[in-house]
Amino acid sequence: MDQWIVGNLHPIPRILMGPGPSNVHYRVYQAMMTPVIGYLDPQLLSCMDEISEMLRVVFQTKNPLTLAISATGSSGMEASFVNFVEPGDTVVIGVNGFFAARMVEVASRCGARVIQIEQEWGKAVEPERIIKALKENPQTKVCGLVHGETSTGVMQPLEEIGSYCKKRETLLVVDAVTTLGGAPVKVDEWGIDVCYSSSQKCLSVPPGLSPITVSAKAKDLLRSRKTKVQSFYFDLLLLEKYWGEERVYHHTAPASMFYALREGLRIIMEEGLEERFKRHQTLGDHLKMELEGLGFKLFAQEGFRLPMLTSVVLPDGVDDAQVRRRLLEQYQIEVGGGLGPLKGKIWRIGLMGETCKMQNIACLIGALKEIL
Amino acid sequence: MDQWIVGNLHPIPRILMGPGPSNVHYRVYQAMMTPVIGYLDPQLLSCMDEISEMLRVVFQTKNPLTLAISATGSSGMEASFVNFVEPGDTVVIGVNGFFAARMVEVASRCGARVIQIEQEWGKAVEPERIIKALKENPQTKVCGLVHGETSTGVMQPLEEIGSYCKKRETLLVVDAVTTLGGAPVKVDEWGIDVCYSSSQKCLSVPPGLSPITVSAKAKDLLRSRKTKVQSFYFDLLLLEKYWGEERVYHHTAPASMFYALREGLRIIMEEGLEERFKRHQTLGDHLKMELEGLGFKLFAQEGFRLPMLTSVVLPDGVDDAQVRRRLLEQYQIEVGGGLGPLKGKIWRIGLMGETCKMQNIACLIGALKEIL
User: Are residues B188 and B99 in the same domain?
Assistant: First the structure.
């Protein structure tokens, strides 16, 4: 390759109203300019402690084992299964979308016997069906659910299942990739044992980290494993030795991403969780109303709609790819298309973190009025 | 937690002369300020193509499957074993340091039968001993070696082993975490099948990415696996579908880190590989001479010393922890201590990428003269 053909990189900025990443606050970009320092530098270790502290606030938990995995949100899913599942273990998963189906795939790759409780995409899985499956399979090691299913815009109720698991050995593993920081995720109160998320959705930090929190009950199970965790990189007991007091080297911490996450969490602390949740709910409702006014139909089941991600069925005659291309090229607005069987049929419109502003709703609705 | 206790983050910058991360060029920091865009945005996909192109130059390869894994260097090691090893497969590993021992651990977690060719820490493994083991175990699936062993400062010769493996089914997997971008890593010429590295050493980009390249022979093996790769996140065929022409979503690309890597690679293209290798060799030699002048003894075997990482035995009476603390606190210089059995006995002094400057050698030697 001729060396001079790689020019400057000056992408056109976008309004990120897809399923993530969301827009990033300028303070978070500035934080990434902080000089990189070593993975055992006391200054970096303090930064990590502060991240853990603030993640506990966002996860609404007291779990000491709360940290950010040095990889994107999908790695949180993998960590949540490889650490807790041994070959032959039974896993129950509520399957009502793309990411729930991915949970099945990830659990299977750990050698789990997976029981899928299937539900139509666009609807929540009835808690009683999950509990029935858990009753019929009392040896179940892990029950996996997606709190905010990004592929359909559905919010899964968790409390009833959590209080069932609390009294038993089964761990409740929850994917809060889309919801954390945008809607309540009450890890302790709801009885969630393992909860993971990502940096780039309602936390509004660039993609690259996966926050995770682990209950005492789940940690006991880690310690009693018969086999080694199949992943070295995602081994939570090794990660704990680095994030905790022992400070044993495991991998070279991605300092710039840690700085970014720390600043993103600080912005959340300043706004306050309740205020932030209210903002996502109010503006999410407003966006839904506006889209209905344009002839879009809400896809997700009423009563179970995510505030931060709205799924809509396209009006008749609207060409998915063409309209999204015009939104991107003429208005620099990104919205998400449908995943898997929903491709071409629905859009997924995100209002997450920094993107969740009246300004952006007005811009999208205005653009759509001009295009349609 | 009271929200206001997390203040601004203003760490004191360091001269990073440890085993990595190295110092980062201001252009790379600036690149991270580029707005985050979506994982299927055509602008991001072009950026990824350019990263692959430039990585091929640095890896000295034509392998189409050349990309950056969205996690730190340790994940490259894991990807290199989980993808190519199935339970029961034989793996031969040359073990002469901490990271080679970690290879054994990672391979074992894939269910491999690992044959360790052990060598004293501080020495290279004799190629003939590796080849003997491969001859005795012709069914060996993977031969794993660490090119630059960061724990000891030793450079492992690879050519002879590579040309042996080239004619057989065994894949040669090489850890170039420390060497890539600072010394020749001739993937195609030497017959390396899988080679991985990290962003934060001689590429001088913040930690968080792991460049990897995979030969056609290794890709054939991937396609002929009987079992699924145990890791979904590190599954190279899925990663290829995202980085390659199909553009199938796998995970949300860490855009800011991609921008950083792209800029770091551009800086390397501008300097030119040969110039860059010469700089690391010349200044590495100079540092070694200066350290010997102060009474340090070179630890790594003569003829097999890494240019970018110098390991030295402390002079009698020098207190490891105390002197390193003074270097860090009074001079803001980070040097690395010994890992594992070498703790307290040796230092590991990095001159990688941006850190590799006369200025930094003068500063370290000057500081040591004042302290000792």
Answer: yes
Q: Are residues B276 and B253 both part of a single domain?
A: no
Task: Tell me, yes or no, whether B281 and B148 share the same domain.
Answer: no
Edge-to-edge, what's the strand order for the sheet holding A194-196?
A66-69, A210-214, A194-196, A171-175, A142-146, A90-95, A113-118
Chain B positions touching A68 (Cβ under 8 A) are: none
Give, as one character, the DSSP assignment of residue B115.
E
State the DSSP H helix or E strand holding residue A29, giving kind and residue range, or none if neither: helix A26-31
The tens digit of pLDDT for each residue in B165-223 reads 999 999 999 999 999 999 999 999 999 999 999 999 999 999 999 999 999 999 999 99
**Tens digit of pLDDT for each residue in A39-87?**
999 999 999 999 999 999 999 999 999 999 999 999 999 999 999 999 9
Cβ atoms within 10 Å, residue A124: 20
Domain count, chain A: 2
Q: Which residues contact A334 (CB under 8 A, 6 or more apart)?
A: A14, A15, A16, A17, A18, A327, A328, B37, B38, B41
Please state the length of chain A: 372
Please state the pTM of the whole predicted model.
0.98
H helix intervals, chain B: 26-31, 42-59, 73-82, 98-108, 127-136, 159-166, 187-190, 216-223, 236-243, 255-271, 273-293, 320-331, 358-371
Do B329 and B217 lie in one domain? The reply is no
Does A338 touch chain B if contact means CB atoms closer than 8 Å?
no
Q: Which of B138, B172, B137 is nearest to B158 (CA)?
A: B172
Q: In this structure, are B301 and B238 located in the same domain? A: no
In this prediction, the answer to ipTM > 0.90 reads yes
Cβ atoms A311, A185 nearer than 8 A: no
User: Whole domain around residue A124: which residue ranges?
Assistant: 26-269
Cβ of B353 under 8 Å from any chain A Cβ? no
Q: Are B134 and B92 in contact (CB under 8 A)?
A: yes
Determine, yes or no, domain membership for B278: yes
Angstrom distance (rounded) from CA A79 to CA A259: 22
Alpha-carbon span A328 to A15, nearest angstrom: 9
| Chain A contacts in chain B segment 129-188 (CB below 8 A) | none
Residue of A nearest to B259 (CA): A9
User: Does one domain contain both B315 and B229?
Assistant: no
The residue count of chain B comes to 372
Quick check: A298 and A123 in contact, CB under 8 A? no
Inter-chain CB proximity B74 and A11 less than 8 Å: no
CB-based contact (8 Å) between A47 and chain B?
Answer: yes
